[in-house]
């Protein structure tokens, strides 16, 4: 009788363990739709400029303290006022459920100056059914200072561990380091100006910048424009 009770208890444990394991299987997670949808808005009662554009980005932000990897991006030419709907399309195979993801957005003027932008990235979970995301943007304190630097200008940057000069042209930037020069093509960014060749990235917004070289990130960089020659 005792052995029979032991067998029943063992079977019960196996059933429970099987049920728990089944719950933990990735197959039981919701299927990825390939879309992240939502709206972009701001608090101020100010009309959008007629030539404004909205850029919404989905990024992998797993690497703390380093620039995220873009998963998807959408540029919208709004025909109505806020809230502005968006629908980011991504490739489900590009999503690793063990990673962290977030959505950001910016509203730019005709000169690519940032008017409104995400103060913080909005986290996205792919472990539960996808829901619409409501992005509430903050007005840029000085939109003119956040515009992309004009072509053929140079800016000297000083970070905690490195100093360099960035020389901008129409579609790329030259990063002049001690004994080394990086040439990075311009890529679309939801906020500020971003240049990257896949291994090295330079990001700049006004007088602030970030430089990433082969996975090493230099943050807190500040600058003043170089004197004209």
Automatic annotation (TrEMBL):
<protein>
    <submittedName>
        <fullName>Putative lipoprotein</fullName>
    </submittedName>
</protein>
<feature type="signal peptide">
    <location>
        <begin position="1"/>
        <end position="17"/>
    </location>
</feature>
<keyword id="KW-0472">Membrane</keyword>
<keyword id="KW-0564">Palmitate</keyword>
<dbReference type="InterPro" id="IPR018660">
    <property type="entry name" value="MliC"/>
</dbReference>
<dbReference type="InterPro" id="IPR036328">
    <property type="entry name" value="MliC_sf"/>
</dbReference>
<dbReference type="InterPro" id="IPR053196">
    <property type="entry name" value="Lipoprotein_YbaY-like"/>
</dbReference>
<feature type="domain" description="C-type lysozyme inhibitor">
    <location>
        <begin position="157"/>
        <end position="216"/>
    </location>
</feature>
<dbReference type="InterPro" id="IPR039366">
    <property type="entry name" value="Pilotin"/>
</dbReference>
<keyword id="KW-0449">Lipoprotein</keyword>
<keyword id="KW-0732">Signal</keyword>
<dbReference type="Pfam" id="PF09864">
    <property type="entry name" value="MliC"/>
</dbReference>
<dbReference type="Pfam" id="PF09619">
    <property type="entry name" value="YscW"/>
</dbReference>
